[in-house]
Structures are given as C-alpha cells and as structure tokens.
Amino acid sequence: MIARYGVHCGITSSKELLRDLFHQTDITAVVDFPGHLKTFCACVGNACSLSIEEWIQHHTLYPAFLAFAPADRQKQILKSAYGRNAGNIHTRLGVCASFIKPPEYLRVCKQCQLEQRDRFGEVYWQRSLQMPGVIFCPHHELPLHVSNTRYHPIGKFDFEAAEHTQIVAPLNCAATRENQKLFILLAQNMHLLMHASCDNKMSFKKLSQFYSELAQRHDLRKGTRVDHIGVANKFHAYWKEPCDQILPNLFKFKPEWLKSLFRKHRKSFHPLCHLLVWQAFNMPDSLSTLHSIKSLPAPKKTQIVQTYLPPSHQVKKHRKEWASICKKNPTKGIKWLRHEGNAAGIYAWLYRNDREWLQSNSPERIKATFFCNRVNWEQRDKSLLKNLLILEARAHVESVNFRKSKAWYIKNSSTPSILEKHRDKLPLCKKFIDSHAESVEEFQRRRIESAICNLRAENEELQTWKIIRRAGIRKEFLSETLLKFIDKSQGILGNGSSSPNLPPHS
Questions:
Q1: CA 175 to each of CA 108, 167, 241, 395, 497: distance values in angstroms, whole numbers, following the listed order
Q2: What is the pLDDT of residue 188?
Q3: What is the mean pLDDT of each run of 10 residues along the chain (506 residues)?
Q4: Dihedral through CA 350, CA 356, CA 357, CA 360, nearest 10?
Q5: Angle at alpha carbon of residue 212, lines to 206 and 218, rounded to 5°
Q6: What residue segments make up the domains of the chain, in order of their start?
Q7: How are strands ordered across the β-sheet holding 167-170?
Q8: How far apart are CA 168 and CA 147, in angstroms?
Q9: Within a 10 A sphere around the Cβ of 307, how many other Cβ atoms?
Q10: In this structure, how many other beta carbons lie within 10 angstroms of the beta carbon of residue 499?
Q11: pLDDT score for 116
C-alpha cells in the first residue's frame, strides 16, 4: 500500500515517502508485521477511513499468528505494533526461532492479477499467498508464480508495488501436481486463518487440552500418555510424500516438533504446523477448529495435598546421609552425586518427603562450560578480510552513491551474520570496518566531489547551489564547514563561482 501510494503521488524517494506517511525517515520496510501504526494512521488522516484494528485485521499477517498466541502475549505484540518499538514483534511471535522460514520472494496468482487489474486498474500483493506452504491460489486453485520482489527487501527502505514486479517462474513440480488437492485445501485453510479475530480467548493450556483430546479421538492415547509413534505414523502417511520436496524442514531438520505439539505447550508453533496436523487428522476448516479450541472450558487447577508424613527418625537419617555425601564431595553437583556418588535413592526420598530442606542443603548448580574448537577464527578472520578488501575495491570502482557505513560493510559482505555476531573474534575485520566506515560528513563530501566532477564533464558552471542540488544534500543538513569545503573543492577541481549563491528553493 505504501509503494502504491508513492506511485500515485509521484514520489520516487523512499525518504520522502516515509516523511509523508510517518513524519520520520527511519521506518523499515516490513512485509509481514509492520509497526508504527498509530503514527501512520494519524499521518494518513482523512485520506483513509480504516482504523488501526482494521489495518491489522485485513492487511497484515498478524491474525494468523495472533490466533495461537496467549492473551498476555497478544497484548504485548499489539502494543508494539501500535507504538514505535516494533523491533521485538518477530521475536515475540516466535518467527525468528521457527524452523519454518518465509518464502524468499513474494508470490502472485496470474488469474487474481487479471481480475484486480480489470476491477481496480492495478494489482496488489495478497497476504494469504505469502505464507509458507501456500503453493496454490485458494480462489482459483492454480499454481502460484514467484516474483522478483524479495520478502525481506535488500534495502532497508525499499517499497515495491506489485504492479512493477516481474514474474519469474511458476511454483510447479511433480510433487505439487500429484498432490494438488492436499495443497489447495491447505491454501484455503490458511486463507481462512487470515480472517481469525484477535481476541484473548486462547491459551497454551487450551491448546494442550485440544491436542490431548485429538489423540484420544483417534485412539492414539495410552492412559494419560500420547502415543507419539502412532501420531507420527498417521501424520507421515498423509504428508510425507508431498511435503518431502516442498517442505523438507518438517522431516529433516526438526523432527521433534510434532512430538512437542502433542505435549504440554510452553511455546508458540508456526500456524503452518497446526494446519498440517489438523488436515492430517481430518479436522474441519481452520476457523471452525480454532473456534472449538477457544471455546474449551478452562482446565481446573488441582492441588496435590500431601497426607503422608514420614517418621522423624527416617527424616533425620536421610538428612544425615545426604549431608555426609555433600561434605565428602564439595566440588560436585547434584547430578554427579545422584549417579556417580550412589545417592540416587537418598535424593529421591528427600525430594518426595523433605523437599524444602533438600533444596536449601544441596550444592549450587554448576554451570557447564563448553569450548568450541570447530572454527579457526584466525584463519576465518583473514579469509573474511580478503572479501572486505574486494568489496571496498568494487565500491571504489563503481563509485557507490550511498554511505559506506559499518552496517553497509557487514550487510554486503559474503557472511553478514558472522560479522554481525562474532566481530570481537575477528580483529582484522573489525579494524578494517572501523577504519573504512564513512561518517555522514565524509559521505556528504564524497557526494560533493562527485557532483563537481559530473558538472565539469557536462561543461556546467560550478555554482554552489548547482553542486548542492546535484549532490542531493538538503538545506537543513548544510553547515558552515560543508560550505567551506565546497568553496575549496571548486578551486581544486575546477574554476567557477565560489560564492554560496543559494536560491530560495534549494
């Protein structure tokens, strides 16, 4: 929507676009979970009648993820989305830690685009097509096509309209053709999930209760325990063949997620995990199933009352034995004492009958220290330094027109994540980046020198206002030091007027 607004208004600068819609210039382009919505709605004003809640409900991916979030976490996420602290949203939703990653490029349906262009005169990005696992259009049941627009833009302020994207290739392979009905049903369920209402009726306890009852309905529970092998066999019989090529992470990298889903819920799972299980277990559509989970009665808390009190002489005996073992092995932890020190029986008895005394009279937990010698950081430091030198040489030849900041060097390197997280282990790279990173003033001077050279090549008169305009420096960022540098550069790089004759509109 922001990109289309820029097209309609003829705004080509991302900074101007952000200044117009947010009164700021440092808002990051985010496809899935945008923030700063309160500021955005205030700036849009009467141009759009949608409220913040309507923006979230109908134009973002929030509903699919908030549908499975507990009430307290929903409030935290929505608070971040409303306000200016939107950097923690992906972490709170569990997206960062999830083994299911979003698609690399945004996806489109050609038939939807034809209908959009016929009805509205332009096309737009459809949010339900951008979820992992969605390979077919839920409306036309046709394979989607991959565009050349990235899900995570390379530039921090890159807003690209769907009208200007290029279609690269269809999401069509043997696995999708053979299992077309399964993936169409999955896409339709994901589309329905996008319309789930954001309320505070969900909880981890209800999800745990639902999956326990689901296993029982399919005879996959032995007493109070879930038959995880039976659950896995039923799930794999339905999804293994079609998903082996489309979603390999489900079976190769994180095979334990299915077992965790049927255990006590302590963390969030990706919506795709829930939909895949519901479909394999023949559940109704996603909205109906979600409603049935939310309508489950809150489980009652049961308090365990200890009625048996052991004789005092047994308590004294076990306390004395445990204290003696701890005294003989002052440097050992509880785990060693139980397994290597032959005190497992004493520990178990005290844990059941005298837990408070045991906790206050046990050795403190020893934190294990691990030394990772897999990586030769000295060798890696030299290798990454070579890549940075190549990057610097290429930037010098190409005369890049953006600031070569520390973030720029890290982002454009061959291994940005390593440089960002382990810079302290890479002293040569750290020294190179610190010494070559441009400040704002250095960047402005380089743009001024480039502008003077270009004006000279075009045989233009070197007037100060022309140099400033060609360099793209705004009036509020001009300083006396910068004006003096322009005068000095005019004398060195060419002949021309050296008086700062700035027109009123510059």
A1: 20, 22, 8, 43, 69
A2: 95
A3: 91 90 89 92 85 92 93 92 88 88 92 94 94 92 93 88 90 79 93 89 92 93 90 88 67 76 92 94 92 85 66 90 90 87 90 90 76 80 91 76 85 87 90 89 84 83 82 79 81 51 41
A4: 120
A5: 135
A6: 204-294, 312-360, 377-438, 441-493
A7: 105-108, 145-150, 167-170
A8: 5
A9: 5
A10: 9
A11: 94
Tell me the three-class secondary structure of 148-167, residue by residue: EEECCCCCCCCCCCHHHCCE
Is the full-model pTM beyond 0.70? no
pLDDT number for residue 497? 41
The single residue listed with the structure tokens 């141009």 is 47
Report the b/e string of 162-189 with b at 16+ CB within 10 A. beebeeeeebeeebbeebbebbbbbbbb
Taking the C-alpha atoms of residue 223 and residue 207, their distance in angstroms, rounded to an integer, is: 19
Which residues neighbour 383 within 8 Å (Cβ) at sequence distance 6 or greater?
A: none
| Residues 6+ away with beta carbon under 8 Å from 146 | 103, 105, 107, 167, 168, 169, 170, 171
User: Which pLDDT score, from 0 to 100, does residue 451 have?
Assistant: 84
Residue found under tokens 């005290």 = 350
**CA-CA distance, 340 to 370, in Å (whole number)?**
21
First-residue to last-residue Cα distance in the chain: 31
| DSSP letter string, 132-153 | TT--B-TTT--B-EEEEEESS-
Give the containing element (helix H, strand E) for 269.
Answer: none
